Amino acid sequence: QVHLVESGGGLVQAGGSLRLSCAVSGSIFSINHMGWYRQAPGKQRELVANLGSGGSTTYADSVKGRFTISRDNARNTVYLQMNSLKPEDTAVYYCNVGYYSPNYYDQWGQGTQVTVSS
């Protein structure tokens, strides 16, 4: 019943920008954390950015100063604004949300491809 729908991926040149969105649909009581992970070919999935339950933000060192995570509470949507993109940012990006419904669940989006050309 609860689904995470991602959008905003695509092809962009180095130095460009993209904005990813992840909307939580269905009946939920409350959201704990919302974050973004990515997985490049031949590499393990890694944390990109996270919004904690208290509003704190965490970023991977490789994206600090370039990426910004934000949240629209009214629409249960998390965003990832990606600026100054580099070819090494190329990966499938996955939304991750922890929520209560009323028990606790941790759920992943389907993934969206981000490709940065040099």
Care to describe what's here?
This protein is an all-beta fold and 118 residues long. It has no helices and 11 strands. Strands 2, 4, 5, 6, 9, 10 and 11 form a 7-stranded mixed β-sheet that branches. A 4-stranded antiparallel β-sheet has the order 1-3-8-7, with no helix packed on it. The radius of gyration is 14 Å and the shape is elongated.
User: Ends: how far apart?
Assistant: 40 Å
Largest sheet: 7 strands, mixed
What is the string of helix and strand elements?
EEEEEEEEEEE
Q: Helical segment tally? A: 0
Number of strands: 11
- The rough form would be described as elongated
Helix content: under 10%
The structure class reads mainly beta
Uncertain segments are none
Task: Provide the residue-averaged pLDDT.
Answer: 96
Sheet-strand content, in percent, reads over 45%
Write down the Rg.
Answer: 14 Å
Question: How is this structure best summarized?
Answer:
By secondary structure, the chain is mainly beta. It has strands at residues 3-7, 10-13, 18-25, 30-39, 46-51, 57-59, 67-72, 77-82, 91-100, 104-108, 112-117. The chain is built from no helices and 11 strands.
SSE diagram, text form:
Layout: E1 3-7, E2 10-13, E3 18-25, E4 30-39, E5 46-51, E6 57-59, E7 67-72, E8 77-82, E9 91-100, E10 104-108, E11 112-117
Parallel strand pairs: 2-11
Antiparallel strand pairs: 1-3, 3-8, 4-5, 4-9, 5-6, 7-8, 9-10, 9-11
